[in-house]
Every structure is written in structure tokens, then in C-alpha cells.
Description:
The chain is of the alpha+beta class. It is 32% helix and 14% strand.
Amino acid sequence: MPSSACGPLRMKSVLRVAVCTIAAALVLGTGGTAAAQPPAACPNIAPPPPVDTSEVPAPGMPVPEPVPVPENPVGGDRLAECGLVIAQGLPEPPAEVTAASWVLADLDSGAVLAARDPHARHRPASTIKVLTALTAIHALRLDDTIVVTQEDADQEGSRVGLSPGVTYTVQQVLTGLIMRSGNDAAHALAMKMGGVEVTLDKVNALARELGALDTRVATPSGLDGPGMSTSAYDLAVIFRAAMSEPAFASIAAIHNTQLPGKPDGPPLEVWSDNQVLLNYPGGIGGKTGFTDDARHTFIGAAERDGRRLVAVLMRGENQPIRQSQQTMHLLDYGFGLSDDDPVGRLVTTSPEPPYVDAADATAAQAQGDSPVNGQPQASSMFGTVGGPLTLIVILAAAAIGVLALRARRARLAAAARRKHNGNDHP
């Protein structure tokens, strides 16, 4: 089957995902870790192959299938384009902006002013903490309390420095999450919302509700995990929704503050890690992120002359200049553009009927190690796939059920292998 058959506009979404699942399985075999080759058209199906073991599922557990591609591109037809997306006659964006995918949008009108490969699926790293924070704001009272555990404090990667045994308010923990990208804060909030798995259900449901249909969250912190996926477009939608919440917007705008420290110790000094907020005129917030697989991700927002813009950069490198500086250049470019001829729109609700991720649907139908559709769960069923497309579709339906049943459990099983999340290096 040609790889281009998995292109985002070539099939109905369900059939496309089924065929792509079979194609990926044929490449992976039983227990391989490399991702299928991207299609010849826009590489929107899934993020690039991982460079480390952070997304390797536990033994016997498969790689989750790609998130379904919507039949119609969310936000407008032009946003399905792979390369640079700008209105006719506009100057090109700064050459220093080298991120693989980015979106520049107006936070108030929702106009997408310019973009590059906006729906390409990439790993979010800690920018997904914006969605975790928004979920917590919806689910919890800001004045409720959290007693931090040793497990919270021991989370790998970037931490704000929450102390075990100390009581914090939800708002204080959110402050550590947003300002310093604390994985300890992400875990504490997840446990307060019912545990990691319950939180992931809530976070992914909110993403679908917002219309962020490129997104699947595998960890509340943004550490890489099997099936993790989002896009620059989705992050712009999520950040816009978050900035409409006063609790989030007020924390995102804080340069520095203090949180409770260790018992009998001094307060914990906390500074924002977002250089756009600290150094760009009119900066109003954003979020940083980095993992080995995601590379650099960045959200930066600013206000000028009554306009509020957001720039989202994904899969970037600090070349020729740092991601924070690339974001500033992109914001400068955006403030010189008008909203009169947008290339798309940030949605406010899902533009499609609600759908449930295959992993969620199957997990809801099966408990424990129950068989799916009467068939035992096997580590692989793709060794003899062939024949006409009809047979592929039938096999794909069964395959997706098998893959999805275990995908949920793979998230926690892979946690021990996730690598350092260096969120403080934008």
C-alpha cells in the first residue's frame, strides 16, 4: 500500500486510520519500536519516530494507533496545507523562525494570521500543561487544599520544588505548574482529580470538547508517552480557552511570586520560565517545553495596541536563535498583520460530532484482561495481512480493538522509561 494513502485528505477518517494502523503494524511486526514512515503528503498522521525509549510500551503492549484525522480540516481548508500558510500579498515571516510547525493567531477574534503546517502532529512536551491546568480549573476549587506527597515531589524532570507533607492550595499548585513547569505540581493536581488515569480521561475529554482533535495526552506533565500527540493549531486553541479563564490568565502573567517552603524554612521563590513574558514588551504569558522526542516547544502571547496575539512553535531547535527569540520575532511579524484576511480560525467548540478515542472506547467496554469481540488479546495479528481493501478494513477493526485495549495501560507502564523533561531551556 503506498504511504501516501494515509494522507490527511485522501480517505474518510475512520477508514484512513484503519488502513494506517495495518500499515504501521506491518512495519512494526511484533514488538518493534519504530514508527511507520510518514505519508508522502502532509505528515499529519503521527509525530516523527521517537529517538529514545520514552514511548516504548511495556512488553506485549502495542504502539497506539494514530489519532483519527478529521474529515474536514479544523479551522478552515487552508489549514490543511503542509507548508507556509499566509494570505496572498503578505510578506513572508522572519527567516529566523525555523520551527517545523507553528501558528500565529489573534486570541480575541480567533483569526489565524499565518501558519506553517498547523495540523502536523507533534509531541507537546510541557506545553500540554496548559490543558492540564485548564482541566484542574474546571474540576477543582482554587481554595481547596493539597497535601503534597513524596511521590509528587519525586517526579522526574522539571520541578517547582513542592515539599512533601506541606499543604498548598490548588491555586498555589497551579502557580508552580504554569510558572515553573513543575512535574511535581502536575502529579499533585492529577492525584487531587482522582489519579493519573482519571485525569487523563478528563484532559482528553476536554481536548475533544474544545475541538483539539489532533490531541491525545499520555501524561499530565507532558513527559513523552505512547501515543502522545497534539499540533500547533490545537495548542493555540487550548491556550486561547485557558486565557479566557481569569485564574489561568492571572497566573500566566506573574513574573515572580512565593509559595510555602519546607516546614520551618523560608518561602519558596518562584520565577516564570517564559522569556517572552519576562522580556517582550506587552508579554502576557505562555508555556515552555522540551523533551528529547518533542524537541523544543513554545507558547508565547503578548498584547499591543489592544490586540492580543499568540504564537505556538513546535518541534523547534535553538538555531539560528533560541525558541523564545523566534517567538518574539513571530509576534513582531503578527502585530504588523491585519485580521481582515485570516487563513483560518481558532474554533471554540468541536466542529465535529463528539467521538471517543479508540483507546477510551475499548477500555470502557472491557475490564481487566477480557477478550475483545470474543477474540483473545494477542501481541500481534498482522503477520498474514493482505488481499483486497475490504479484508484490510475488517482486520483493521479487530486490530484497533486489540491495540486500544492495552494502550491505556501502556501509559503508566512506560513511565519508568521516560527521559528527562528539560522545560526550563527555551
